[in-house]
Every structure is written in structure tokens, then in C-alpha cells.
Amino acid sequence: MDFTEEAFVLSARSHGDTGVIVDLLTQTHGRRAAYVAGGASRKMKPFLQPGARVVVDYRARTAEQLGAARLEPVGEGPSALFDEPLALAGLAAAAAVVQGALPEREPHPGVFLAFEALVSALAVPQVWPAIFVRFEAGLLEDLGFGMDLSHCAATGTLDDLIYVSPRTGRAVSREAGAPYADKLLTLPPFMLGAQAGLGAGDIRAGFALTGHFLEQFVFHPQDRPLPPARDRLVEKLSALG
Length: 241
Hints:
By secondary structure, the protein is of the alpha+beta class. It has helices at 85-101, 109-121, 128-142, 174-177, 202-219, 228-239; strands at residues 3-15, 19-26, 31-36, 53-59, 67-73, 161-164, 171-173, 185-186.
């Protein structure tokens, strides 16, 4: 199991006196853990932060064995966001969600490309929180738990979709959902199309929507909560209104 390709760092933890175990998101080989010799050095630490982009040279004797990796940084990485603490929180949250959601060694090239797009969007504070929510929706779909927002589950209508069933993930129209409004999740307009604008409360509703299904279908079956980094991001966004 040898390969060389670009990857994103999801996390890194100390191992021994000088090494680290790094968790990586690769495009064609999925999420991979690897030992990086000397990873605890000052030289290495800057590009072992969550969201850093690297070229990984990965080696393992068998597919099941913990591999060893050499890493080379690509671009500025998270240091480009040092003046944007909210964007850094978003990057850490996205990395934590991906690490917790993806099975190891299972290829998910679409998630890699979506993560890449989200990282690029973090430079635009007006839009990246909405893109983050859509990223989580795409992650759910890639894992087989996608929401069906194409039409009303009760009537089949394509119009005035403002709710989502918390049980099935299917959209519900205003009229059909009115009697059950207190039991349904809010569907913000930006989830239905890129042309929709952002209104008050839309980002909060979006995070509640994807968070519900991530918890229900991905993290609860693992007997784990949603990542604390995601909770901190939602708290920061809420504090900013």
C-alpha cells in the first residue's frame, strides 16, 4: 500500500517523543492514519494543523497496517486565515466532522473535492457559513444519508418547500406541514438553490438541519456526539448573530 498524492490534514496527535499520528483526507485512498517521524518538531507543526494541505508519501506493508508518511506542505494552509478566527474555527470544525464521519480507508473522492471547495470559500466571510452547511449536506449524501429536497413528501408539489421531516429527511411544503410545524425542521431557502439569498436565521436553521441528520445517522450509531469543534463553531456564529 504505497502511494503519493495530495491530502488534507484532519488531525495530528503526539506519538512517542518526536513523532505524531496524523489523520489525512486523500482524494483516491480515503481517510488514512499514518505515523510521521519527527512530526513533533517546530518545522513540522505549522503544516500539521487541521485543514493544512500536503503532499503525502505513504507507505504500509499491508492495507490493514498503520502506515508511515512523509509530508510536504502545499500553499500557506491555515496560516492564511490567522487574521480570521471564525474561518479558522470553520476549518477546524469541517476537519473534525470529516474525520468523525468517514470510515477509514474507504474512498470518497467527492468529499475531498467538496472539502477543497470549502477551504477555498473560507476566504469569503459573507458566504462560507452557507457553503459549510451545503458541504455537510453533501457529506451526508455521499455516505448514503442524503436529504430529498426535490418535492413535498406529502403532496408532490415543487413549490413553497419550507420544512424537512426529521425522520425521513424529505422536504415538506408550507401547507402540508402547517399542522405539524412544531415537529418539523426548518428548510432554509439557500439549501434549495445557489441563487437563493440568505435571510435572518437561515444559517442557524441550516446547521440545525444538517446537524440533526449527522447526529442521527452518522455519529449516534458510533455512540459519539457531534464533534466539539462543530459545536464551538455554531456557538461563535450564534454569538455574531
